[in-house]
Amino acid sequence: MRKIICLISVVLSTLGLAQTPVNAYATPEAKQILAYIASLGDNILSGQHSYNEEPEKFYKLAYEITGNYPAVWGTDFYWNSQKDPGERIVKNAIQKHEEGALVTLMWHVGRPTDKPPYSWSESVQNEFSDENWEQVLTPNTALHLRWLKQVDHVASYLKKLEESGVPVLWRPYHEMNGVWFWWGNNPEAYKKLWKILYNRLAEYHQLNNLIWVWNANAPRDIPFDEAFAYEDFYPGAEYVDILATDVYHYDYEQRDYEALLKLAAGKPIALGEVGELPKPNILQKQPKWSWFMVWSNWLETANTVNRVKEIYNYSKTITKDEIKK
């Protein structure tokens, strides 16, 4: 019955009759945030990512530059040290929610073949064989059980956020159309992985505070650093609330924007991560982006103070104190 209700929700959204979460049991807070994002029109929420070990640093830097806090605060469940960052992330996410910001969380998780803490090149960005994929997608195999342990671990923190009334723009397994993460470069396997992740979190754990953000990378044709077409990796409208992409080095290609907009078929789209901020003239040509989120230190290494001020002063940009929930 739960799946049937979710399917009805997707059909209504596709028909433009409602912007409802794909999880029909979504919390009132999650429904409210998704409805708000869907109502933005040509306005755009400002956002800033911070490393989980420095949860305030770049968020505060945005304020120091502009005099306004970003509307969206983001961080990452990446576990690369002996101490699990989960409790710290929960604490900071609750704080940001109480301060009035929207919260987005991502998950640079290591391969399920490895144990935490996860090194970057040896785990997060290492290869994942066809045999590994077959096993991780097959119930009751040793590798599938290890994957479940990873998912259940992050679910325990997401549940604490739900219990605290915090809706989460949840964007796991991002940039999947690129060749650099273990979960990428295998379209059919990836789509299955997304679906079983959704089922584990939404069905088994009944996490209803998640707004599901499918976050690809801007397509590019760079040898050994490719990012392939969005649609090849899209798991389907019944598993996704918002479609996002990551744009670095000012690659705001109009054709990529239009391709994502077409794939979204009425769902909101967003700039999940950016390096160089878009200029106002870009946003005038690409008015449907729901938010941008600058990646941590790129705020100062890839953008001038004037560029940051320009986008925050843009008439369509929404800062934290301007959010209407």
UniProtKB/TrEMBL annotation:
SUPFAM superfamilies: (Trans)glycosidases. Keywords: Glycosidase, Hydrolase, Signal. One of its GO terms (molecular function) is mannan endo-1,4-beta-mannosidase activity. Coiled coil: none annotated. One of its GO terms (biological process) is substituted mannan metabolic process. The keyword Coiled coil does not apply. Residues 28-321 form the GH26 domain. The keyword Hydrolase applies. The active site is at E175, E273. Residues 1-24 form the signal peptide. Belongs to the glycosyl hydrolase 26 family. This is Mannan endo-1,4-beta-mannosidase. It comes from Leeuwenhoekiella polynyae.
